[in-house]
Amino acid sequence: MIRRILISVSAAVLAVAGALAGDKSQLVSSLDRLMGATFSDADAPGAAMLVMQGNDTLYSRCWGVADMETRQPVTLRTNFCIASVTKQLSAVAVLQLAEQGALKLTDPLSKFFPEFKAPFFKDITLHHIMSHTSGIPDARPRDDRNFVLHATDVASVQYMRTLDHLNFATGTQYEYINPTFQLIYQLVERVTGVPYETYMREHIFTPAGMATAQFFEPQRDIANMAHGYEPDGKGGWREFDYGEESFFATKADGGLYCSIDDFVRWERALRDNVVWTAASKRLAYTPWIVIPADADYGYQPHTGYGYGFFVQDLPGRPTTVYHTGDNGGFTIYAGKVPERDLLLLLFSTRNDIDRMGLVNAAYDMVFDYINNH
């Protein structure tokens, strides 16, 4: 299945290469052909894509189904689990608290988590946990299936109380792990005295105008909620999210449900320094560590990691700042090119797509269009 889609993407790119001329309609047609090669089945799990430059929408399309049981179609108001894209919102919360003087990025974890007894927690700082350079291993217990399916942020990091080793010397390497971002759930509460979700609603969602964004809870009603799906091996689909996939109940590292519409508001709040200062933005968009080719997650050529953001500097192209999200059947990409005020979002309810193939081909088409204007 995945190989067929890779071939389809390559064929679609070849079909439209060099075809872009002057007007937006040709860009739209080219992107339609590119995306249609993957999302041709209106009855299958689908996706939404949005491309904007400034406040001008260059492309906006939705395909397929958000919920296979109700047959609700994907729209720009569908709330997807954006998975690890959530990390950037948690990072912004920490940066806000640093701006307020409530903490410093050089503060050690031992200051906030005295229950973590190993001496190395005195050397691991907030900078390290937000840049995936802490050296802390992902040692969450996986032999208890109930724990794996239902553990919260607090439960998931309990192993750090007795952790007695690091995978590498702090600050020397990149290793993408979720538990260090799960620490932010408790960090926010311990610093501010208010629950993580309350803080995020009051200081992130509301200022940004994200009216429908919600963190997942098993019994919580999330409007226009999508489900994630994976191929069932028989030509159909099976649901693959909470209760089927591991660690779906944690919030700070990946538990936000958000629509394309609300994410555009978030991006504008970042761009216009509504939720942070320009200085914090520079810190977040600085690639603190290079991602090696053998990394378990996140490698792309010429890419590093900031605070909750991947930062890519391809030769001959302006810097791209982005994050991917993979949880259950959800496959997410949220990226921008700040120098061009360009935004590209791809949110999908299925996990068998060639995300970066689609995204990179779409960027090529969009840059061809922009460079001719």
Task: Give an overview of the whole structure.
By secondary structure, the chain is α+β, with helices and mostly antiparallel strands. The protein folds into 2 domains: about 240 residues, 3-Layer(aba) Sandwich (Beta-lactamase), CATH 3.40.710.10; about 110 residues, Methane Monooxygenase Hydroxylase, Chain G, domain 1. Helices cover about 35% and strands about 15% of the residues. The protein has 12 helices and 15 strands. An 8-stranded antiparallel sheet has the order 2-1-15-14-13-12-11-10, with helices on both faces. Strands 5-9-6 form a 3-stranded antiparallel sheet. Strand 12 and strand 13 form a beta hairpin. Helix 1 runs antiparallel to helix 2, helix 2 runs antiparallel to helix 12 and helix 3 runs parallel beside helix 8. The longest helix is centred in the last third of the chain and has 17 residues. The protein is globular. The N terminus is likely disordered.
Q: Percent helix among the residues?
A: 25-40%
Q: Look at the structure and name the CATH superfamily of the largest domain.
A: DD-peptidase/beta-lactamase superfamily
| CATH level 1 name of the largest domain | Alpha Beta
Radius of gyration, CA atoms, in whole angstroms: 20 Å
Low-confidence stretches: 1-8, 10-21
- Roughly how many Å apart are the termini? 38 Å
From the spread of the alpha carbons, the general shape counts as globular
The assigned structural class equals: alpha+beta
Q: What is the CATH topology of the largest domain? A: Beta-lactamase
- The biggest beta sheet, please? 8 strands, antiparallel
Query: Given the structure, what is the number of helices?
Result: 12
Q: From the coordinates shown, what is the CATH architecture of the largest domain?
A: 3-Layer(aba) Sandwich
Mean residue pLDDT: 94
- Strands, count: 15
Give helix and strand order, one letter per element, not per position: HHEEEEEHHHHHHHEEEEHHEEEEEEH
